[in-house]
Amino acid sequence: MAADTLRSSGGFENGVGDDLQLRATTQLRLQDDTLDELSGMADRVGELAGGIQEEVDGQNRMLDGLADDLDSAEELMGTVLGKVGALLQTRNKCQIGTILGLFLVIVVLLILVFNT
Hints:
single chain, mainly alpha, 0% strand
């Protein structure tokens, strides 16, 4: 009977409706705040991804340059090894002795340079 009185006066329905509306408004504010935080985090992740992409691009350029340098060094090494091979095929013992002597002098000089 008290519920009928509240319903007929509009007090019960208005109280529940106000409470539901307040809860819905509060829930929407929480969702908006959460979405704002999520949006900020997504922006930061995007910025980090852009920075990582720039770093990867830079390192790829450096690796390409390194590969080019290695190719040219490999060609030069092939040329040098071919000339050394041709030189070592000589039968002249004086040339071989001179080569070995100069090689030993270079090794000794390198040892002295790096030890001092």
